[in-house]
Amino acid sequence: MVVDAGCYNKHMAISDAESGRLITMVPIGSGVDANTFDPSTEDAFASNGDGTLTVVQPPIVPGSFTLLVLEQ
Q: Taking residues 48-70, what's their average pLDDT?
C-alpha cells in the first residue's frame, strides 16, 4: 500500500504505508488542495490550486511511476 502527501513545495511524497519508507517524490501543481489514494487502481491524486490535477500511476517497472498532469 502507498501513502501520498502533497506539499506546498510542489511535490508529492510517495511512501510505503507499512514501513514508512519514502519511495519517491514527484512534482505536482502549485497550491495543493487535497491528496487521495485509490487502492483499487493504486493511483495517487493531487488537486492543485493552480487548476491542475496530478495523477501518479503505479510503476510498470519497479521504481518508475507514471506522472500525468491534467490542466483546466
A: 79
CA distances from 24 to 18, 49, 56, 62 (A): 15, 22, 11, 11
What are 18-34's pLDDT values in tens digits? 888 888 888 888 888 88
**Contact in structure between 6 and 46 (CB atoms under 8 Å):** yes
Q: Does domain 2-70 have CATH number 1.20.58?
A: no
Please tell me the pTM assigned to this model. 0.76
| Alpha-carbon span 13 to 69, nearest angstrom | 16
Grid coordinates given for 57: 500511476
Compute the residue count for the chain.
72
Query: Residue 3 and residue 43: Cα distance in Å, rounded?
Result: 10
Q: Where are the domains of the chain?
A: 2-70
